[in-house]
Specification:
Layout: H1 5-11, E1 23-27, E2 30-33, E3 38-41, H2 44-47, H3 56-66, H4 79-91, E4 96-100, H5 103-122, E5 128-132, H6 141-146, H7 150-153, E6 163-166, H8 171-177, E7 182-187, H9 201-213, E8 217-221, E9 245-248, E10 259-263, H10 265-268, H11 284-297, H12 300-324, E11 327-333, E12 336-341, H13 349-358, E13 361-362, E14 364-365, E15 370-373, H14 381-406
Parallel strand pairs: 3-13, 5-6, 5-7, 7-8, 8-9
Antiparallel strand pairs: 1-2, 2-3, 4-10, 9-10, 11-12, 12-15, 14-15
Helix pairs in contact: 3-11, 4-11, 12-14, 13-14
Length: 407
Amino acid sequence: MHVTREMFNDVMVPNYNPANMIPVRGEGSRVWDQDGNEYVDFAGGIAVNVLGHCHPELVKVLNEQGAKLWHLSNVFTNEPSIRLAKKLTDATFADRVYFANSGAEANEAALKLARRFALDHYGESKDQIISFKQGFHGRTFFTVTVGGQAAYSDGFGPKPGAVDHCDYNDLAAFEKLISDKTCAVMMEPLQGEGGIIVPDPDFVKGVRELCDKHNALLIFDEVQSGVGRTGHLYAYMGLGVTPDILTTAKSLGGGFPIGAMLTTTEIAASLKPGTHGSTYGGNPLACAVAEKALDIVNTEEVMQGVLAKEALFRKHLDAINEKYHVFSEIRGQGMLLGCALNDKYKGRARDFMMAATEHHLMCLVAGANVIRFAPSLVIPDEDIELGLARFEKAVAQVVNAEQDSAA
Protein backbone atom coordinates (compact mmCIF):
# COMPACT_ATOMS: atom_id res chain seq x y z
CA MET A 1 0.00 0.00 0.00
CA HIS A 2 1.39 3.39 -0.98
CA VAL A 3 0.76 5.77 1.92
CA THR A 4 0.33 9.49 1.35
CA ARG A 5 -0.17 12.45 3.67
CA GLU A 6 -3.61 12.97 2.08
CA MET A 7 -4.67 9.53 3.36
CA PHE A 8 -4.19 10.82 6.91
CA ASN A 9 -7.10 13.21 6.40
CA ASP A 10 -9.31 10.36 5.16
CA VAL A 11 -8.68 7.84 7.95
CA MET A 12 -7.69 9.78 11.09
CA VAL A 13 -9.77 11.70 13.61
CA PRO A 14 -8.97 15.38 12.90
CA ASN A 15 -7.47 16.25 16.31
CA TYR A 16 -3.93 16.46 14.86
CA ASN A 17 -2.55 18.51 12.01
CA PRO A 18 0.82 16.92 11.24
CA ALA A 19 3.49 18.22 8.88
CA ASN A 20 3.10 17.53 5.16
CA MET A 21 6.06 15.15 4.98
CA ILE A 22 5.99 11.61 6.42
CA PRO A 23 9.13 10.43 8.25
CA VAL A 24 10.04 6.81 7.51
CA ARG A 25 13.46 6.26 9.08
CA GLY A 26 15.59 7.69 11.86
CA GLU A 27 19.14 7.27 13.05
CA GLY A 28 20.63 9.27 15.91
CA SER A 29 19.48 12.88 15.47
CA ARG A 30 18.68 12.55 11.76
CA VAL A 31 15.37 11.55 10.16
CA TRP A 32 14.50 10.76 6.53
CA ASP A 33 11.10 11.25 4.86
CA GLN A 34 9.40 9.25 2.09
CA ASP A 35 11.29 11.19 -0.58
CA GLY A 36 14.69 10.59 1.03
CA ASN A 37 15.04 14.15 2.39
CA GLU A 38 17.14 14.33 5.53
CA TYR A 39 16.09 16.34 8.62
CA VAL A 40 17.91 17.25 11.83
CA ASP A 41 15.69 16.37 14.79
CA PHE A 42 15.48 18.99 17.56
CA ALA A 43 11.97 17.80 18.52
CA GLY A 44 12.91 14.42 19.95
CA GLY A 45 9.35 13.15 19.61
CA ILE A 46 8.38 15.87 22.14
CA ALA A 47 11.23 15.23 24.59
CA VAL A 48 10.92 11.45 24.24
CA ASN A 49 13.81 10.21 22.10
CA VAL A 50 16.38 10.80 24.80
CA LEU A 51 19.07 8.85 22.92
CA GLY A 52 17.94 9.75 19.43
CA HIS A 53 16.43 7.30 16.94
CA CYS A 54 17.27 3.60 16.87
CA HIS A 55 20.10 3.77 19.41
CA PRO A 56 21.99 0.48 18.85
CA GLU A 57 21.84 -0.56 22.52
CA LEU A 58 18.09 0.08 22.74
CA VAL A 59 17.51 -1.82 19.47
CA LYS A 60 19.57 -4.72 20.85
CA VAL A 61 17.56 -4.91 24.10
CA LEU A 62 14.27 -4.56 22.22
CA ASN A 63 15.19 -7.49 19.97
CA GLU A 64 16.47 -9.62 22.86
CA GLN A 65 13.43 -9.03 25.08
CA GLY A 66 11.11 -9.26 22.08
CA ALA A 67 12.29 -12.82 21.54
CA LYS A 68 11.67 -13.70 25.21
CA LEU A 69 8.52 -12.19 26.69
CA TRP A 70 6.34 -9.19 25.78
CA HIS A 71 3.32 -9.13 28.04
CA LEU A 72 1.93 -10.93 31.06
CA SER A 73 -0.44 -8.53 32.90
CA ASN A 74 0.00 -7.76 36.57
CA VAL A 75 -1.41 -11.10 37.66
CA PHE A 76 2.29 -12.00 37.37
CA THR A 77 5.42 -9.93 37.93
CA ASN A 78 8.50 -9.97 35.72
CA GLU A 79 12.25 -9.46 35.99
CA PRO A 80 12.67 -6.30 33.84
CA SER A 81 10.04 -4.36 35.81
CA ILE A 82 11.60 -5.28 39.16
CA ARG A 83 15.09 -4.37 37.93
CA LEU A 84 13.88 -1.02 36.55
CA ALA A 85 12.01 -0.21 39.77
CA LYS A 86 15.11 -1.03 41.82
CA LYS A 87 17.27 1.25 39.65
CA LEU A 88 14.73 4.11 39.88
CA THR A 89 14.47 3.86 43.67
CA ASP A 90 18.27 3.58 44.04
CA ALA A 91 18.71 6.75 41.95
CA THR A 92 16.00 8.90 43.60
CA PHE A 93 14.28 9.78 46.89
CA ALA A 94 11.62 7.13 46.26
CA ASP A 95 11.08 3.67 47.78
CA ARG A 96 8.20 2.44 45.63
CA VAL A 97 7.28 2.51 41.92
CA TYR A 98 4.03 2.10 39.96
CA PHE A 99 4.35 1.54 36.20
CA ALA A 100 1.95 2.87 33.56
CA ASN A 101 2.15 3.48 29.80
CA SER A 102 2.34 7.27 29.62
CA GLY A 103 2.83 10.50 31.52
CA ALA A 104 -0.90 11.13 31.76
CA GLU A 105 -1.40 7.69 33.30
CA ALA A 106 1.43 8.24 35.78
CA ASN A 107 -0.15 11.57 36.75
CA GLU A 108 -3.60 9.98 37.05
CA ALA A 109 -2.09 7.46 39.46
CA ALA A 110 -0.36 10.21 41.45
CA LEU A 111 -3.57 12.22 41.83
CA LYS A 112 -5.61 9.19 42.84
CA LEU A 113 -2.93 8.18 45.34
CA ALA A 114 -2.87 11.69 46.86
CA ARG A 115 -6.65 11.71 47.29
CA ARG A 116 -6.64 8.21 48.79
CA PHE A 117 -3.73 9.02 51.13
CA ALA A 118 -5.59 12.12 52.41
CA LEU A 119 -8.77 10.08 52.92
CA ASP A 120 -6.89 7.37 54.83
CA HIS A 121 -5.08 9.82 57.11
CA TYR A 122 -7.24 12.95 57.41
CA GLY A 123 -10.78 12.13 56.25
CA GLU A 124 -13.06 13.16 53.38
CA SER A 125 -12.85 16.95 53.78
CA LYS A 126 -9.16 17.07 52.74
CA ASP A 127 -9.60 16.84 48.97
CA GLN A 128 -8.39 20.09 47.35
CA ILE A 129 -5.76 19.79 44.61
CA ILE A 130 -3.78 22.90 43.69
CA SER A 131 -1.89 23.19 40.41
CA PHE A 132 -0.54 26.02 38.30
CA LYS A 133 -1.81 28.08 35.39
CA GLN A 134 -0.28 27.08 32.04
CA GLY A 135 0.73 23.76 33.60
CA PHE A 136 0.23 20.58 31.60
CA HIS A 137 -0.32 17.14 33.13
CA GLY A 138 -1.89 15.02 30.39
CA ARG A 139 -5.13 14.53 28.49
CA THR A 140 -7.22 12.23 30.68
CA PHE A 141 -10.18 14.13 32.09
CA PHE A 142 -8.68 14.28 35.60
CA THR A 143 -5.19 15.29 34.49
CA VAL A 144 -6.42 17.82 31.91
CA THR A 145 -8.60 19.42 34.59
CA VAL A 146 -5.65 19.66 36.96
CA GLY A 147 -3.61 21.10 34.09
CA GLY A 148 -3.73 24.87 34.00
CA GLN A 149 -5.00 25.46 30.45
CA ALA A 150 -8.80 25.58 30.48
CA ALA A 151 -8.98 25.43 26.66
CA TYR A 152 -7.90 21.78 26.89
CA SER A 153 -10.54 20.80 29.47
CA ASP A 154 -13.53 22.98 28.54
CA GLY A 155 -16.39 21.53 26.54
CA PHE A 156 -16.43 17.96 27.86
CA GLY A 157 -19.06 18.31 30.56
CA PRO A 158 -18.71 18.62 34.35
CA LYS A 159 -15.10 18.57 35.49
CA PRO A 160 -13.67 16.75 38.50
CA GLY A 161 -14.12 19.06 41.48
CA ALA A 162 -11.93 20.54 44.20
CA VAL A 163 -9.20 21.57 41.74
CA ASP A 164 -7.78 25.11 41.95
CA HIS A 165 -5.15 26.90 39.91
CA CYS A 166 -2.53 29.46 40.91
CA ASP A 167 0.00 31.57 39.00
CA TYR A 168 3.37 29.83 38.67
CA ASN A 169 6.20 31.53 40.60
CA ASP A 170 3.69 33.55 42.71
CA LEU A 171 4.28 32.35 46.26
CA ALA A 172 2.00 34.95 47.89
CA ALA A 173 -0.98 33.84 45.77
CA PHE A 174 -0.18 30.21 46.51
CA GLU A 175 -0.04 30.86 50.25
CA LYS A 176 -3.55 32.36 50.12
CA LEU A 177 -4.89 29.32 48.26
CA ILE A 178 -3.41 26.47 50.29
CA SER A 179 -5.08 25.32 53.52
CA ASP A 180 -5.58 22.24 55.67
CA LYS A 181 -8.16 21.11 53.09
CA THR A 182 -5.42 20.78 50.46
CA CYS A 183 -4.52 17.14 49.85
CA ALA A 184 -1.97 17.71 47.08
CA VAL A 185 -0.08 20.28 45.05
CA MET A 186 0.94 19.24 41.53
CA MET A 187 3.63 21.19 39.70
CA GLU A 188 6.20 20.88 36.97
CA PRO A 189 9.68 21.80 38.29
CA LEU A 190 10.16 23.33 34.83
CA GLN A 191 6.96 24.19 32.95
CA GLY A 192 7.11 22.57 29.52
CA GLU A 193 3.99 23.08 27.39
CA GLY A 194 3.31 26.36 29.22
CA GLY A 195 6.35 28.03 27.65
CA ILE A 196 9.56 26.47 29.10
CA ILE A 197 9.27 28.44 32.36
CA VAL A 198 12.05 27.85 34.90
CA PRO A 199 10.86 28.21 38.50
CA ASP A 200 12.32 30.63 41.04
CA PRO A 201 14.18 28.38 43.54
CA ASP A 202 12.66 30.31 46.47
CA PHE A 203 9.19 29.70 45.04
CA VAL A 204 9.77 25.94 44.93
CA LYS A 205 11.17 25.92 48.47
CA GLY A 206 8.21 28.00 49.66
CA VAL A 207 5.74 25.59 48.06
CA ARG A 208 7.47 22.68 49.79
CA GLU A 209 7.35 24.42 53.20
CA LEU A 210 3.66 25.31 52.84
CA CYS A 211 2.84 21.73 51.80
CA ASP A 212 4.57 20.51 54.95
CA LYS A 213 2.71 23.06 57.09
CA HIS A 214 -0.68 21.94 55.75
CA ASN A 215 0.06 18.20 55.43
CA ALA A 216 -0.37 18.32 51.66
CA LEU A 217 1.55 16.03 49.34
CA LEU A 218 3.84 17.70 46.81
CA ILE A 219 3.68 16.00 43.39
CA PHE A 220 6.38 16.84 40.86
CA ASP A 221 5.36 16.16 37.28
CA GLU A 222 8.73 15.35 35.70
CA VAL A 223 7.24 13.74 32.61
CA GLN A 224 9.07 16.25 30.40
CA SER A 225 11.86 17.51 32.70
CA GLY A 226 13.02 14.09 33.90
CA VAL A 227 15.62 11.51 32.87
CA GLY A 228 18.56 13.83 32.32
CA ARG A 229 16.87 16.56 30.32
CA THR A 230 17.93 19.41 32.63
CA GLY A 231 21.43 18.05 33.27
CA HIS A 232 20.21 16.30 36.43
CA LEU A 233 18.61 12.87 36.38
CA TYR A 234 15.48 14.61 37.67
CA ALA A 235 15.00 18.38 37.87
CA TYR A 236 14.17 18.27 41.60
CA MET A 237 17.80 17.33 42.24
CA GLY A 238 18.92 20.74 41.01
CA LEU A 239 16.34 22.62 43.10
CA GLY A 240 17.21 21.30 46.55
CA VAL A 241 13.56 20.31 47.09
CA THR A 242 12.26 16.75 47.31
CA PRO A 243 8.67 15.92 46.31
CA ASP A 244 6.47 13.29 47.96
CA ILE A 245 5.43 11.83 44.61
CA LEU A 246 7.24 12.11 41.26
CA THR A 247 5.95 11.16 37.83
CA THR A 248 8.19 10.26 34.90
CA ALA A 249 7.59 9.14 31.31
CA LYS A 250 8.64 10.54 27.89
CA SER A 251 12.46 10.13 28.01
CA LEU A 252 12.21 7.17 30.41
CA GLY A 253 11.54 4.72 27.58
CA GLY A 254 13.85 6.33 25.03
CA GLY A 255 10.99 6.19 22.52
CA PHE A 256 9.12 3.15 23.85
CA PRO A 257 5.86 3.97 25.72
CA ILE A 258 6.26 3.78 29.50
CA GLY A 259 5.39 5.92 32.50
CA ALA A 260 6.11 5.59 36.21
CA MET A 261 4.99 7.09 39.50
CA LEU A 262 7.58 7.15 42.28
CA THR A 263 6.85 7.68 45.97
CA THR A 264 7.73 6.69 49.53
CA THR A 265 6.79 3.49 51.36
CA GLU A 266 4.42 5.35 53.70
CA ILE A 267 2.46 7.10 50.95
CA ALA A 268 2.46 4.06 48.63
CA ALA A 269 0.67 2.06 51.33
CA SER A 270 -2.61 3.78 50.37
CA LEU A 271 -2.68 2.02 46.99
CA LYS A 272 -3.68 -1.36 48.39
CA PRO A 273 -4.46 -4.30 46.06
CA GLY A 274 -7.40 -3.41 43.84
CA THR A 275 -7.26 0.38 44.27
CA HIS A 276 -5.53 1.09 40.95
CA GLY A 277 -4.10 -0.83 38.02
CA SER A 278 -3.02 -1.02 34.40
CA THR A 279 -3.26 -3.87 31.91
CA TYR A 280 0.01 -3.00 30.14
CA GLY A 281 1.80 -1.06 32.87
CA GLY A 282 5.12 -2.67 33.82
CA ASN A 283 5.18 -5.00 30.82
CA PRO A 284 8.57 -6.68 30.32
CA LEU A 285 9.20 -5.24 26.84
CA ALA A 286 8.79 -1.59 27.89
CA CYS A 287 10.68 -2.09 31.15
CA ALA A 288 13.65 -3.80 29.48
CA VAL A 289 14.05 -0.91 27.02
CA ALA A 290 13.58 1.72 29.75
CA GLU A 291 16.14 0.01 31.98
CA LYS A 292 18.75 0.27 29.23
CA ALA A 293 17.84 3.90 28.48
CA LEU A 294 18.17 4.76 32.18
CA ASP A 295 21.53 2.95 32.43
CA ILE A 296 22.93 4.99 29.53
CA VAL A 297 21.52 8.37 30.60
CA ASN A 298 22.31 8.13 34.31
CA THR A 299 26.04 8.67 33.88
CA GLU A 300 28.30 11.62 34.61
CA GLU A 301 29.39 11.69 30.97
CA VAL A 302 25.87 12.18 29.59
CA MET A 303 24.84 14.69 32.28
CA GLN A 304 27.92 16.84 31.73
CA GLY A 305 27.38 16.54 27.98
CA VAL A 306 23.85 17.95 28.34
CA LEU A 307 25.18 21.13 29.97
CA ALA A 308 27.91 21.53 27.33
CA LYS A 309 25.34 21.09 24.54
CA GLU A 310 23.05 23.65 26.20
CA ALA A 311 25.90 26.17 26.13
CA LEU A 312 26.48 25.47 22.42
CA PHE A 313 22.77 25.96 21.66
CA ARG A 314 22.66 29.23 23.59
CA LYS A 315 25.78 30.59 21.88
CA HIS A 316 24.34 30.03 18.40
CA LEU A 317 20.82 31.17 19.32
CA ASP A 318 22.22 34.39 20.78
CA ALA A 319 24.13 34.97 17.54
CA ILE A 320 20.98 34.37 15.46
CA ASN A 321 19.06 36.80 17.66
CA GLU A 322 21.72 39.51 17.39
CA LYS A 323 21.25 39.32 13.63
CA TYR A 324 17.45 39.05 13.37
CA HIS A 325 16.06 40.40 16.71
CA VAL A 326 13.17 37.96 17.11
CA PHE A 327 13.57 36.56 20.65
CA SER A 328 12.99 38.29 23.96
CA GLU A 329 14.93 35.53 25.76
CA ILE A 330 16.22 31.97 25.52
CA ARG A 331 14.63 29.97 28.34
CA GLY A 332 14.99 26.55 29.86
CA GLN A 333 17.67 24.16 31.05
CA GLY A 334 19.79 21.49 29.43
CA MET A 335 18.15 19.95 26.37
CA LEU A 336 14.77 21.58 27.03
CA LEU A 337 15.09 25.09 25.62
CA GLY A 338 12.58 27.71 24.51
CA CYS A 339 13.06 30.72 22.25
CA ALA A 340 10.48 33.24 23.50
CA LEU A 341 9.36 35.55 20.71
CA ASN A 342 9.43 39.31 21.24
CA ASP A 343 6.37 41.55 20.79
CA LYS A 344 6.98 42.05 17.08
CA TYR A 345 6.60 38.31 16.40
CA LYS A 346 4.13 37.53 19.20
CA GLY A 347 1.85 34.57 18.53
CA ARG A 348 3.86 33.32 15.57
CA ALA A 349 5.81 30.36 17.00
CA ARG A 350 4.06 27.97 14.62
CA ASP A 351 5.22 30.04 11.62
CA PHE A 352 8.83 29.54 12.72
CA MET A 353 8.25 25.82 13.29
CA MET A 354 6.73 25.39 9.81
CA ALA A 355 9.57 27.36 8.21
CA ALA A 356 12.08 25.17 10.08
CA THR A 357 10.44 22.04 8.62
CA GLU A 358 10.79 23.55 5.13
CA HIS A 359 14.52 23.92 5.84
CA HIS A 360 14.72 20.30 7.05
CA LEU A 361 14.81 20.95 10.78
CA MET A 362 12.29 19.34 13.15
CA CYS A 363 11.38 21.52 16.16
CA LEU A 364 8.38 22.23 18.39
CA VAL A 365 6.35 25.03 19.92
CA ALA A 366 5.38 25.57 23.56
CA GLY A 367 2.32 27.74 23.21
CA ALA A 368 1.93 30.45 20.57
CA ASN A 369 4.98 32.46 21.61
CA VAL A 370 7.77 29.95 22.22
CA ILE A 371 9.77 27.76 19.82
CA ARG A 372 10.82 24.65 21.72
CA PHE A 373 13.87 22.41 21.31
CA ALA A 374 13.93 19.02 23.06
CA PRO A 375 16.54 16.98 21.18
CA SER A 376 18.39 13.83 22.09
CA LEU A 377 20.67 14.27 25.11
CA VAL A 378 23.53 12.78 23.09
CA ILE A 379 22.98 14.76 19.89
CA PRO A 380 26.41 15.25 18.27
CA ASP A 381 27.72 18.82 18.30
CA GLU A 382 27.91 18.80 14.49
CA ASP A 383 24.16 18.05 14.34
CA ILE A 384 23.50 20.98 16.69
CA GLU A 385 25.53 23.27 14.44
CA LEU A 386 23.85 21.99 11.27
CA GLY A 387 20.37 22.17 12.81
CA LEU A 388 20.92 25.73 14.02
CA ALA A 389 22.25 26.78 10.60
CA ARG A 390 18.97 25.49 9.17
CA PHE A 391 17.05 27.24 11.93
CA GLU A 392 18.76 30.51 11.03
CA LYS A 393 17.52 30.12 7.46
CA ALA A 394 14.00 29.55 8.79
CA VAL A 395 14.22 32.65 11.00
CA ALA A 396 15.48 34.67 8.03
CA GLN A 397 12.58 33.40 5.92
CA VAL A 398 9.95 34.51 8.46
CA VAL A 399 11.67 37.86 9.08
CA ASN A 400 12.10 38.61 5.38
CA ALA A 401 8.47 37.69 4.65
CA GLU A 402 7.43 40.08 7.43
CA GLN A 403 9.53 42.86 5.94
CA ASP A 404 8.23 42.18 2.42
CA SER A 405 4.62 42.36 3.58
CA ALA A 406 5.34 45.58 5.49
CA ALA A 407 6.88 47.09 2.35
